[in-house]
């Protein structure tokens, strides 16, 4: 699950950014990124200040600090960075500069995001524009909602909405631990009935069939109450105490969602699994009312074990039914997709032809290729931008999106080239020393051939050359050992061959690296513009989804009334 928090920064923005970008917390700055500003503390704070100077200057808040924490072992640093950047894109909508860093110094990964309080384009502050002058709880509520949506899309657990005003007693908590909570039983039974109901009215009818007593009075403050008949529950339980998903409105919404999913999958619950059978109350154990195979009516042995096993089986069956339903839906949808793909790739042959042979026309039929720039075809100057990108070597949107963030690229050989250059430079230096030694060697041999006063006089005359020779020989002895061939010192020819191999590899990588630099520089010109367009399209889709949800709520409300 992901936990989010947000607070203000009223001073020392540079110190805050310096903290979140510390090398010991971000693996030497590997998991640090920024938007519309530099990623270092000094540069980012200066860029923040430049934009802030264009604003009204009426707010004392300089920036905001968001933290998004994940459960231990739930995400990798790369996934945490991706989720954090998606959160920034949806929450800030490309209007505010930010610096993001993933910290790994604790048992759980967490993202730190510091964003400027001043809008890049209109100079308004985030405080005024986003919260409309109200408290920051408004900003946090939206932040958490967006974070939960993104986590759900990535298959990461989210923190369920807490139920306000309804605590859990010590007795009930103990019953939950032992698996005997009647509220849990009631929740499971209601959820099972919802799965097979077509609307709210049908749900209430099926509750009666499944031994769930209810009191529904829409005009009252407490609209809906439930009770399990024959299960030892004496009092009715208010629906809202079971959870936010068990109010009349939410039940109607969930039934509508289930029906919508069933319609989309072109199935009904009856096609998948057997509908829930009515529960026979323990107070009236009549053999004629039993749905299962007939048993001896007056056999009373082990009643406690039978009741407990039956209840456990019901809870297990309910969970299995839900899983089977959605698994069948996924399987059906996949089968339909496979069938459509198979039809598109292998056209259905004529009935008369048992083994159809491909004709020249069929073999030459052009295949419809997917547009690699489909995602940005609708933006302004799209054709001009795409032409420039392709001229720079960027041939698709997926390739362009690889330059959105500071992630390693397969064609970026900066480190490898630096390592190769260091190696062949050391060898070339050694070769140069060996050549220099050979040039000085005649003088040194002449010096060694003399003795006594003559040698001293010769050394005094050629002191610089002799000292240079001795230092050169010392350097060669210290550095030549690691290049030994079969335990023997390498010759100058061996070293030259090794150096040429390293240089040849460096040149090959240099071609790819140069092409990569061209791509990166070309992509940089349009990265911000394309990301902003993609964010706008995403926001349009989100607004449309929100509008559809609002309409669905109104329809359900009218149905209840």
UniProtKB/TrEMBL annotation:
InterPro entries: Endonuclease_MobA/VirD2. Residues 548-561 have a biased composition (Basic residues). Residues 277-292 have a biased composition (Low complexity). Residues 19-155 form the MobA/VirD2-like nuclease domain. It comes from the Bacteria. Residues 364-374, 538-547 have a biased composition (Basic and acidic residues). Residues 277-316, 341-376, 534-561 are annotated as: Disordered. This is Relaxase/mobilization nuclease domain-containing protein.
């Amino acid at each position: 699950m992901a936990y989010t928090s947000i607070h203000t920064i009223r001073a020392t923005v540079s110190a805050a950014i310096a903290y979140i970008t510390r090398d010991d917390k971000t693996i030497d700055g590997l998991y640090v990124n920024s938007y519309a500003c530099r990623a270092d503390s000094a540069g980012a704070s200066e860029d923040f200040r430049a934009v802030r100077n264009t604003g009204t200057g009426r707010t004392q808040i300089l920036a905001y600090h968001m933290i998004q924490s994940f459960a231990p072992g739930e995400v990798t640093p790369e996934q945490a960075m991706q989720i954090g950047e998606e959160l920034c894109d949806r929450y800030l909508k490309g209007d505010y500069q930010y610096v993001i860093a993933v910290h790994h110094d604790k048992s759980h990964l967490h993202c730190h995001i510091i964003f400027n309080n001043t809008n890049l384009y209109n100079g308004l502050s985030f405080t005024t524009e986003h919260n409309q002058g109200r408290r920051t709880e408004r900003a946090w509520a939206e932040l958490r909602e967006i974070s939960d949506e993104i986590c759900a899309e990535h298959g990461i657990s989210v923190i369920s909405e807490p139920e306000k005003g309804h605590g859990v007693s010590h007795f009930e908590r103990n019953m939950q631990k032992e698996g005997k909570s009647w509220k849990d039983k009631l929740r499971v039974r209601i959820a099972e009935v919802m799965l097979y109901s077509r609307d709210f009215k049908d749900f209430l009818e099926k509750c009666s069939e499944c031994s769930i007593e209810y009191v529904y009075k829409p005009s009252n403050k407490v609209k809906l109450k439930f009770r399990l008949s024959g299960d030892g529950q004496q009092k009715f339980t208010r629906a809202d105490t079971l959870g936010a998903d068990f109010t009349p409105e939410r039940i109607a919404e969930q039934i509508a969602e289930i029906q919508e999913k069933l319609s989309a999958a072109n199935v009904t619950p009856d096609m998948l699994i057997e509908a829930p059978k009515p529960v026979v109350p323990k107070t009236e154990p009549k053999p004629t009312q039993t749905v299962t195979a007939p048993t001896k009516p007056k056999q009373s042995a082990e009643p406690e074990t039978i009741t407990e096993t039956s209840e456990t089986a019901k809870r297990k069956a309910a969970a299995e039914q839900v899983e089977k339903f959605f698994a069948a839906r996924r399987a059906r949808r996949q089968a339909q997709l496979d069938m459509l793909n198979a039809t598109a790739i292998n056209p259905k042959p004529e009935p008369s032809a048992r083994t159809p042979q491909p004709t020249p026309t069929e073999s030459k039929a052009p295949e419809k290729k997917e547009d690699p720039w489909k995602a940005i075809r609708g933006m302004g100057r799209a054709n001009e931008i795409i032409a420039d990108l392709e001229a720079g070597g960027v041939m698709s949107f997926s390739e362009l999106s690889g330059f959105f963030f500071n992630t390693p690229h397969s064609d970026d050989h900066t480190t490898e080239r630096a390592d190769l250059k260091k190696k062949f430079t050391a060898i070339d230096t050694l070769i140069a020393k060996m050549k220099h030694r050979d040039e000085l060697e005649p003088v040194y041999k002449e010096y060694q051939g003399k003795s006594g006063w003559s040698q001293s006089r010769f050394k005094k005359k050629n002191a610089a050359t002799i000292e240079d020779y001795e230092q050169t020989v010392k350097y060669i002895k210290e550095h030549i050992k690691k290049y030994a061939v079969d335990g023997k010192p390498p010759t100058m020819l061996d070293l030259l061959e090794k150096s040429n191999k390293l240089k040849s590899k460096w040149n090959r990588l240099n071609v790819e690296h140069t092409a990569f630099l061209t791509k990166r520089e070309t992509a940089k010109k349009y990265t911000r513009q394309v990301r902003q367009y993609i964010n706008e399209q995403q926001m349009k889709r989100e607004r449309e989804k929100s509008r559809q949800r609002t309409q669905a709520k109104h329809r359900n409300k009218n149905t209840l009334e």
